[in-house]
Amino acid sequence: MPIFLGIDSSTQSLTALLIDTDSGTLLHEESVNFGEEFPEYGQPSGFLPDMPDGEVHSSPLMWLDALDLALARTKEAGVDLSRVVAVAGSGQQHGSVYLDGEFGATLAGLDAGQSLSAQIAPRLTRETAPIWMDTSTSAECAEIAEAVGGDAEVCAKSGSIVIERFTGPQIRRFAKRDPEAWARTGVVHLVSSFMASVLAGTNAAIDHGDGAGMNLMNLEALAWDIDLLEATAPDLDEKLPPVAASGTVAGAVAPYFVEKYGFASSCEVVLFSGDNPCSLVGMGAATPGKVVISLGTSDTMFAAMPEPRTDPNGYGHVFGNPMGGFMSLICFINGSLAREAVKDEFGLSWDDFGPEGLAKTVPGNGGKVMVPFFAPEITPRVDSEGPAYAGWDGERDAASTVRAVLEGQFTNMKLRSQWLGVAPESILLTGGASQNDGVAQVVADVFGTPVSRLAVTGSAGLGAAMRAAAATGVGLTALEEAFCRPVEGSTIQPNAECGGVYDEFAQKFAAHLQDNYGPART
Ligand code: XUL
After folding, report:
1. CA torsion sign, 202 to 205 to 209 to 214?
2. Which residue out of 192, 276, 329 has the highest number of ligand 1 atoms within 8 Å of its CB and is therefore the one to mutate?
3. Ligand 1 site, CB within 6 A
4. How many whole angstroms from 11 Cα to the centroid of ligand 1?
5. Local mean pLDDT, 10-residue blocks, the chain (522 residues)
6. Please, are residues 284 and 331 in contact by the beta-carbon 8 Å criterion?
7. Can you name the residues that pair with 331 across neighbouring β-strands?
């Protein structure tokens, strides 16, 4: 019986997930939390805390230790890895890994007697990797935009204006600040293509899904854009792997994995992609029609789109859809940390965000509005030192603040997604808070749309495993039927009585945002 492996290399953990496509079952899932398993790296949440100037970095060697550990545990759990026909993966988007010209040769000669991290450590020209939470590159963003003719031009070429966390500005900052190390750099990988390279034992290409999150790829040509490359860093064209379709096979799995974990030498490594593109597949939303809202450290909203259409306000992004065509993505910084801040302020539990807790207040919150920006937001781009409240006459109480944070978050999402030009027919909700029926009800009411949840929660890892299967000939429809079913009875209908409440609320929210934070930066 053929099985397929998805590897999800995310911010806080690495997960290996195996599916059996004949029986339509999830065979095994093994998750390694970086902070818990590898305290020696000093990164409790998967990145170095307290770096200066908005820098947020992580250790590629820690991800490799997690890969070794996840595979060792999967084998120990009795999974016969020789049955894996193909592996694909998902990576936190935008992060970049800097390696010297010997990286390819090291990969070709990996020794199963040693760890991956020990063998790859000498190849790093930059010890740590800037990740998607890094906001240190405002100067570089302005320089790139100016060199190319402005943000609108960069957006028309790459699908996004120049964005601090995107890889191009991050590369530029490194090349400017450490030109000697930049000169020694032979190849720059994304998290996704780095992990794929290690598995395949050869430099793997960057796929169209994750490649679009770099401000370097031309969306129309699906190739590196020479103007953007030149505006970013010297000799960048020589240091980037090629871009390729997400379903491309990078090669057979490296002998290291055959000897150490029992993979068949015929097992194929399919290109890795970004976590959001992989989630699109894992949520069964790779064909246009469904909108996904993912509630995580950052909240994201994404959907497949047949033609690339860009956000005139510059907040949204267009990436390649791993199954062909394109996808939109909108990312909100104030996600679970904002919900947690309200929970902690009043010493609540997540049950207070559930249906019973929300029953203490009414939709529209009796005129109380909160702009829930506990940290500076990127959608819209406003500096913020804390949320803004309006409509409380006396002290704020727990129940109205809980409703306010949720209504504020989802109203902001609704307003910032209007450029997509389609009102969603149904919303698929995923991520930590998605299982909470109260949270799901507020989403349904604000958007006026039914909300469903799927059985499998790790949609990025599942999407990666499904991509591995699809690349070797398993049909997407069959895969979606087997793995992307909504949980029976879990669909939440919008409350008919809400009527126009949320239209009026959205206007109030927009005015309150403008009054408190001024016009958004573009
Ligand atoms: C998307 C983004 C995040 C990361 C999280 O643009 O920055 O969703 O991909 O892993």
Report:
1. positive
2. 276
3. 10-11, 92-94, 132, 165, 213, 274-276, 298, 300, 329, 331
4. 9
5. 95 96 96 98 95 96 98 98 98 98 98 98 98 96 98 96 97 98 98 99 98 98 98 98 98 98 98 97 93 91 90 93 96 92 97 97 97 94 92 95 98 94 87 92 96 89 98 96 91 90 96 89 60
6. no
7. 300
